[in-house]
Please model this.
Amino acid sequence: MNQLIAAKEGKATQAMKAVARHEGVSIEELRQNVADGKVAILANNRHKRFTPKGIGKGMSVKVNANIGSSPEMIDINTEMEKLRMAREAGADTVMDLSIGGDLDVIRKVIIEQAGIPIGTVPIYQAAVEAVKKRKAIVNMDPDELFEVIEKHGEDGVDFITVHCGVTQRSIERLRKQGRTTDIVSRGGAFLSEWMIVNNKENPLFEQYDRLLKIAKRYDMTLSLGDGLRPGSIGDATDRGQIEELIILGELCQEAIEQGVQVMIEGPGHVPLNLIETNILLQKKLCNEAPFYVLGPIVTDIAPGYDHITSAIGGALAGYFGADFLCYVTPSEHLGLPTPQDVREGVIVTRIAAHAANVARGNPKALKLDKTMSTYRKALDWKGQIKCAIDPSRIIDFRKDRNLRNDVCSMCGEYCAMKVVKDYFKQ
Model:
């Protein structure tokens, strides 16, 4: 069953019902938002034994974790450990960004083991295969790119990043203005190189109808990628980025009309003062389509701590209306993340998402904070562990310090709540 077409026909699918129950929203409200293209239900019709997720208006802010091999680090067991870490830490989705090893095998194993929606970036596999077959990415055959997209759909991939807005026109805008960091999107760079050397238009843009037919067949959500996203805060919201966003808005509308679900990907590196502007622009230009942001990272000077710089930006972005946060790990800008990096990235991004949910008035988020505060007042450590975003952190912390259950080591017997407990009984 195609989610968008069913919604337009007034039908609620099983996936919609599952999402509505999880989110605590009315099925009719959800169905209407899906029909309007304001919510995407990530649920490829070939994907079995997994929990579908809803991204967009009226939904809680979701978190994605990226995993995947590189040519220098190929170990499927390590990728499975990353997947396990991501799931245990509470990621809503996982993207397989592998570019090393047997990409088909890695992807299929991840899909089989995940239990949550899976995303990919098909241009990566197409580029890797072009290099193997023809020695260079610029020798990639567009037909082979679409064959890879078809293969990912058949395997059960729920959403794919496709950089359809990297066009001759948007690249020229970027060139004329100039940039500090040019193009930092791997997929955007692959396509730009191919287009410039071959003097041809982006096949994902030129043959967009072909892409829509494949996506519609598998009910695979298109995540329209930001191939020209800023890679430094000085480049944020420049003409290249906005030109691409305008194109994505037009392509989004066309996809919705054709029965294909869409998300829009966004920056990137953005200073705090421009985050709200970026959200408002995307929502206006893309008819409130779900917005999927990387971070955003709010300063360029913190390698090793970019999970924190992105969580700061992610919390603000979520508050202003972003729907989906792609995590950033401590390894961002340094190297391929370890399983522990994956765990830490998911946790801090979930904190950002939860903070945004609280600020947006999400009832479930507000209730959880209220419950935690109640347990904290009662010095109920078991209750606090149950509510915590990372229960193991509390357990290990208190075990290492051998603390009593009625105090912590900060104040001990002078705990403020312990001191006034008898005077504020309710």
About this structure: Residues 60-360 form a domain with the TIM Barrel fold (CATH 3.20.20.540). The longest helix spans residues 339-359. The chain has 19 helices and ten strands. The longest strand covers residues 62-67.
